[in-house]
Design goal:
11 strands; six-stranded mixed beta sheet; globular; alpha/beta; single chain; 46% helix; 22% strand; 13 helices
Length: 311
């Protein structure tokens, strides 16, 4: 009997990811494809609370490509979830009904806490962290999740409505970005992070920080000057606070067109990477962290591990 093939799709504010795996005996799996495409589904959602037609069309086209790949590979079941943009948009249900009618794809919108749980599960199963107390940070386009836990599981989680796209749309309008705009954004970030620190009564002292999703993987790729993205080079890499600050200065000093030429930085992420890098720097500073480990296995891997646990 042929091993079972499954797909897991994570529809985010900025990026849509699709993991296709083949399961074998004993809970093992083999990755057949791990796609990532920036579609900017959540463009304008912060201001309008509505997903626009352009973002919907870009996302639909990518989903159609993913489903064609699934069909070609003989995938038996597709699990798809939506996060911040689909949580916030007033027309989320209408859009998902269109996708269901046009593509045959059922998309489940997950809460911030569910997103946090899947992210933590992916880190817990995907990195060798020796039973340490962890703070997993998932910077998305529209929101950021903070998940504290250990080998026993999640012990606390918090989600804030700040991500690389949302912060860019709210604060960063010049090209290159001026100091005043950056300062206003940092003030807003720090106000949000103050409540996160209160959530962790010990201030997060002694926690091992792990960052997942596109901002962190991009910062790691830029440090390594990767001309072609490499999962093995990025997954498990460590970013230092000094390196993150170097990249903040680099991105702020350049126009968006100039950023697109930086090795390791995907062109479609060039406009939002400064906000993501600033958010990373303020998080590390807030928790007194000199380094953060990077994982490129996020919600889609959490969905996979949940499925494996049910077999």
């Amino acid at each position: 009997m042929r091993p079972q093939r499954l797909a897991f799709i994570d529809i985010g504010t900025n990026t849509i990811l699709c993991l296709i795996v083949e399961l074998s005996d004993g809970g093992r799996f083999r990755v057949l494809n791990d796609f990532a495409e920036i579609t900017r589904l959540g463009e304008g959602v912060d201001q309008n609370q509505t997903i626009g037609r352009a973002g919907e069309q870009r996302s639909r086209d990518v989903l159609k490509q993913y489903l064609a790949s699934c069909e070609n590979l003989g995938v038996e079941a597709v699990t798809a979830v939506g996060t911040s943009a689909l949580r916030d948009a007033r027309n989320s249900l209408e859009l998902r009904e269109r996708w269901h009618a046009e593509l045959g794809l059922q998309v489940r919108v997950i809460s911030g806490n569910e997103e946090a749980g899947y992210s933590f599960l992916a880190v817990q199963r995907g990195l060798s962290l020796g039973g340490r107390e962890l703070l997993v940070i998932d910077i998305g386009g529209g929101s950021t999740e903070f998940i504290r836990g250990n080998e026993g599981g999640v012990v606390g989680a918090e989600s804030i409505n700040m991500g690389s796209v949302r912060l860019t749309e709210r604060f960063l309008h010049s090209d290159p970005v001026g100091d005043a705009e950056c300062a206003s954004m940092i003030t807003a970030i720090d106000q949000q992070l103050a409540s996160i620190r209160v959530r962790f009564s010990d201030g997060g002292a002694g926690l091992a920080l792990v960052g997942i999703a596109g901002t962190f993987t991009t910062l790691a790729a830029v440090e390594k000057q990767l001309t072609r993205y490499s999962h093995s080079a990025v997954h498990g890499a460590c970013l230092t606070l000094s390196e993150v600050r170097r990249q903040v200065r680099l991105f702020q000093s350049k126009t968006i067109a100039e950023r697109k030429k930086i090795p390791g930085l995907e062109a479609k992420r060039a406009d939002v990477i400064l906000a993501g890098a600033c958010l990373t720097e303020r998080i590390m500073r807030s928790f007194g962290a000199e380094r953060i480990m990077v994982s490129d296995q996020g919600v889609r891997y959490g969905l996979l591990h949940e499925r494996l646990a049910s077999l």
